[in-house]
Amino acid sequence: MTAAVILAAGAGRRMGRPKAQLEFEGETLLRRAVKVALASGCSPVIAVTNPEDSGQLGLEARCLPNPDAATGMASSIRIGITALEAGVEAVLLLTVDQPLVDAALLRDLQALFQKDPSRPAACAYAGTLGIPALFPRRLFPALLALEGDRGAKVILLREGAATLPFPGGGTDLDTPEDLERLRR
């Protein structure tokens, strides 16, 4: 079983408001990310949100508030990993601010991961690799040990992650200008 943990607790300082509640194509980025994770076959789907966003989805996803979101992304990763059941063999980490992520991409990433489920699989874009990314259970302790605003890239690099090209991966929403550019 592959779970999904959606990192959605950020304050969106450069955006001027939390990104999870931004609207794109008629729905919030949080709702969109949850729908994509569900459509890719992940179960369970956990969204780690800021406390104000918890419980507003109405989808088959569990919202967990992160009261320590200001300390950085690692705290959200820890909350999501800690909530996973014993039967979860792998976790897919993704964020709400990559609107070009779709279910087909996540299914392709899962297929790549299944070729060697002992090592992580990650998307490659903008000259690097990153999320969405899949991690086997053996790496859950390393994910739990992350601190501050550092994501899991250090683990992906150390473990020699299998990579899936994702040309749209560099399109993320950090500023109001990014959102306007995407809407056009």
Automatic annotation (TrEMBL):
* Protein source organism: Geothrix limicola
Q: Which Gene3D superfamilies match?
A: Spore Coat Polysaccharide Biosynthesis Protein SpsA, Chain A
Signal peptide interval: none
**Ranges for domain MobA-like NTP transferase:** 4-158
Q: Which residues cross the membrane?
A: none
Q: Which domain of life is it from?
A: Bacteria
Q: Which SUPFAM superfamilies does the annotation name?
A: Nucleotide-diphospho-sugar transferases (SSF53448)
Q: Name one Pfam family in it.
A: NTP_transf_3
Put simply, this protein is called MobA-like NTP transferase domain-containing protein
Matching entries from InterPro entries are given as:
MobA-like_NTP_Trfase, Nucleotide-diphossugar_trans
